[in-house]
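Students often ask why we bother predicting the structure of a whole assembly rather than each chain alone. The short answer is interfaces. A chain on its own may look different once its partners are present, and contacts between molecules only exist in the joint model. In this exercise we take two input lines together and write out one structure for the complete complex. Read the inputs first and try to guess which parts will touch.
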Amino acid sequence: MIKIGILNLQGAVSEHLDMTLKAIDKLDKKNEITVIGVRYADEVSECDGLIISGGESTVIGKLIKERQIDKAIKEKKIPIFGTCAGMVILSKKTDYDQDILEIMDIEVSRNSFGRQRNSFENEIKIFGDSYSGVFIRAPSVSKILNENNELEILSELDNNIIAVKQGNNIAMSFHPELTNDTRLHEYYLSEILKLNKSNRD
Amino acid sequence: MKKGTDVLKEGFAKMTKGGVIMDVVNANEARIAEDAGAVAVMALEKVPADIRASGGVARMADPNKVQEILEAVSIPVMAKARIGHIAEAQILETLGVDMIDESEVLTPADEEYHINKKEFTIPFVCGARNLGEALRRIDEGAAMIRTKGEPGTGNIVEAVRHMRMVTSEIREIQAKNEEELRNFARFIEAPFPLVKEVAKTGKLPVVNFAAGGVATPADASLMMQLSSDGVFVGSGIFKSENPTEFAKAIVEATANYDKPEVLADISRGLGEAMKGVKISEIAENDRMQERGW
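Now the answer. The structure tokens for the assembled complex follow.
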């Protein structure tokens, strides 16, 4: 059984849990994948994949460090899907002094589109398909730090990089968990399934 | 590109879940709050305990003060407008505040109407003592609800009463059929479609926080155990003996609300909490929770 954890420290956790459950259902993989909320390092290290939700990146980052969840993630190289604050947490560098995982070769600018009055919904394109993008005080990638490191840009909006993939980690500046569209969660789960299959082979 | 949609307003509130929102009156306090792990700060002129002590008409904070706090931190900044005071809310929106608290802590500007919050791009949070009040505010466009409690008292009893009231009413309506729900909606003076939705989902359609009287880490844990999505702390932090320690402790208590052994450690040697007030010592027309309807 593959176990997906939703990091349950702060933010839109139940929304990701609901979406992941729906995505598992759509993929018809109930017998292969389970999903649970995780709050401590020992729970995180039992996961084959981890979703980091939107919320306040300063708060989530602080709790990750205090609970030594960063060590659990790095030791087991757990593939992470981060949205909004999750993208900030995954980055190597931000424009603010805060605790982050420093996993992906990106520099992130927080609140890159402005404060809440500038939050917006806009159509975005990923893999040639259209999605509804929900951007709430959203970050964006301001710089790719190491061009040689297989970092793939999944989506851009008006020259802002809003979704990237590097190795098994995916970061998005928007909130697929606030829509009714499970395709991006299905994509993440499919990547985890592929990875687990190739590890077994 | 769409702005100010319900998804964006309610989504903003969802991002604060599991967190602590702290009242601050200057840039320095705002930074202490952010460093301690607050998910947002509430910018105001005076904390509720001081508003209560000084009397007179309590209004929106000076724009200079709001500006100072907006510039001091990277986390969201909220600010309070008087109930029904459309102009104060417009000013706060122009200043760049991320969410407005249409708050009974300030002196109401309108005794009949709350602000039509749907007219605004930024989201609102409003206080409620029961399900009817919560649903009336949501119907007006509130993207987040909080208990009213009794602000500035350091006494949790009213917040507990309000949170328990909402949850017990939600439990009650889940057993009702359509006809009974219609009657109940009339009885609690709430719009029927919202009552029906709550009966079906078993929860409020927006995020629901605790506020009004939170003074200790244990208070924060108590409110989380009573199913709050998060906690507002007003006077509890900066009216305590060690604001920095109290701020950190209340954040940790909210994140570890169901771990008594952790709570015991957090609560040790914190120093004196804010001085509390018994609700019975406050004359009925001085109770802030009676403002709004």
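Check your guess against this: Residues 157-173 of chain B form the longest helix (17 residues).
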